[in-house]
Design goal:
Alpha-Beta Plaits
Length: 105
Protein backbone atom coordinates (compact mmCIF):
# COMPACT_ATOMS: atom_id res chain seq x y z
CA UNK A 1 0.00 0.00 0.00
CA UNK A 2 1.14 3.56 -0.76
CA UNK A 3 -0.32 6.67 0.84
CA UNK A 4 0.02 10.02 -0.91
CA UNK A 5 -0.67 13.12 1.15
CA UNK A 6 -0.64 16.81 0.37
CA UNK A 7 -0.78 19.36 3.18
CA UNK A 8 -2.48 22.67 2.48
CA UNK A 9 -2.26 25.80 4.61
CA UNK A 10 -5.51 27.68 3.96
CA UNK A 11 -5.80 31.34 4.92
CA UNK A 12 -8.22 31.93 7.80
CA UNK A 13 -11.71 32.71 6.56
CA UNK A 14 -11.29 30.68 3.33
CA UNK A 15 -12.02 27.24 4.73
CA UNK A 16 -15.55 27.00 3.30
CA UNK A 17 -14.30 27.96 -0.18
CA UNK A 18 -11.49 25.39 -0.02
CA UNK A 19 -13.87 22.63 1.07
CA UNK A 20 -16.38 23.59 -1.66
CA UNK A 21 -13.66 23.45 -4.33
CA UNK A 22 -12.77 19.90 -3.27
CA UNK A 23 -16.40 18.75 -3.02
CA UNK A 24 -17.27 20.11 -6.46
CA UNK A 25 -14.17 19.04 -8.37
CA UNK A 26 -14.20 16.03 -10.66
CA UNK A 27 -11.32 13.99 -9.24
CA UNK A 28 -11.25 11.14 -11.81
CA UNK A 29 -9.57 8.97 -9.15
CA UNK A 30 -12.09 6.18 -9.56
CA UNK A 31 -10.93 5.80 -13.17
CA UNK A 32 -7.45 4.76 -12.07
CA UNK A 33 -6.22 1.23 -11.59
CA UNK A 34 -4.86 0.74 -8.08
CA UNK A 35 -6.87 3.56 -6.48
CA UNK A 36 -8.25 2.50 -3.09
CA UNK A 37 -9.54 5.52 -1.16
CA UNK A 38 -9.47 9.30 -0.83
CA UNK A 39 -10.14 11.57 2.16
CA UNK A 40 -9.87 15.31 2.66
CA UNK A 41 -8.86 15.95 6.26
CA UNK A 42 -9.25 19.16 8.26
CA UNK A 43 -6.54 19.70 10.84
CA UNK A 44 -5.62 22.23 13.48
CA UNK A 45 -5.97 25.98 13.20
CA UNK A 46 -3.04 28.34 13.54
CA UNK A 47 -3.10 32.09 13.86
CA UNK A 48 -3.09 32.69 10.10
CA UNK A 49 -4.30 29.41 8.56
CA UNK A 50 -6.13 26.12 8.91
CA UNK A 51 -4.27 22.95 7.97
CA UNK A 52 -5.84 20.45 5.56
CA UNK A 53 -4.48 17.24 4.09
CA UNK A 54 -5.56 15.22 1.09
CA UNK A 55 -5.01 11.53 1.84
CA UNK A 56 -5.07 9.06 -1.05
CA UNK A 57 -4.48 5.32 -0.69
CA UNK A 58 -3.10 3.31 -3.61
CA UNK A 59 -2.35 -0.38 -4.00
CA UNK A 60 1.29 0.44 -4.91
CA UNK A 61 3.54 3.44 -5.45
CA UNK A 62 3.62 2.51 -9.15
CA UNK A 63 -0.16 3.00 -9.31
CA UNK A 64 0.23 6.44 -7.72
CA UNK A 65 3.00 7.36 -10.17
CA UNK A 66 0.80 6.28 -13.08
CA UNK A 67 -1.92 8.60 -11.72
CA UNK A 68 0.45 11.59 -11.68
CA UNK A 69 1.24 11.18 -15.38
CA UNK A 70 -2.29 10.35 -16.55
CA UNK A 71 -4.88 12.36 -18.47
CA UNK A 72 -7.18 11.87 -15.47
CA UNK A 73 -4.64 13.68 -13.27
CA UNK A 74 -4.43 16.59 -15.71
CA UNK A 75 -8.23 16.82 -15.85
CA UNK A 76 -8.55 16.71 -12.05
CA UNK A 77 -6.00 19.49 -11.60
CA UNK A 78 -7.04 21.67 -14.56
CA UNK A 79 -8.38 24.51 -12.39
CA UNK A 80 -5.91 24.15 -9.52
CA UNK A 81 -4.39 27.61 -9.89
CA UNK A 82 -7.65 29.55 -10.04
CA UNK A 83 -7.94 30.17 -6.28
CA UNK A 84 -4.32 30.73 -5.24
CA UNK A 85 -5.25 33.59 -2.91
CA UNK A 86 -6.75 31.16 -0.38
CA UNK A 87 -3.44 29.27 0.07
CA UNK A 88 -0.43 30.19 2.20
CA UNK A 89 2.13 28.76 -0.18
CA UNK A 90 2.12 25.60 -2.30
CA UNK A 91 0.94 22.23 -0.99
CA UNK A 92 3.52 20.02 0.69
CA UNK A 93 3.62 16.47 -0.68
CA UNK A 94 4.45 13.44 1.48
CA UNK A 95 4.45 9.84 0.23
CA UNK A 96 4.47 6.79 2.49
CA UNK A 97 5.04 3.07 1.92
CA UNK A 98 3.03 0.93 4.31
CA UNK A 99 5.04 -1.04 6.83
CA UNK A 100 2.17 -2.44 8.86
CA UNK A 101 -1.58 -2.27 8.32
CA UNK A 102 -4.18 -3.38 10.85
CA UNK A 103 -7.85 -3.60 9.95
CA UNK A 104 -10.99 -4.25 11.89
CA UNK A 105 -12.10 -7.86 11.61
Amino acid sequence: MFIAMNRFRIRKGNEADFERIWRERDSHLNEMEGFVEFALLKGPEAEDHTLYASHTVWETEAHFQAWTTSDAFRKAHAGAGSSREIYLGPPQFEGFQSVQVLTRQ
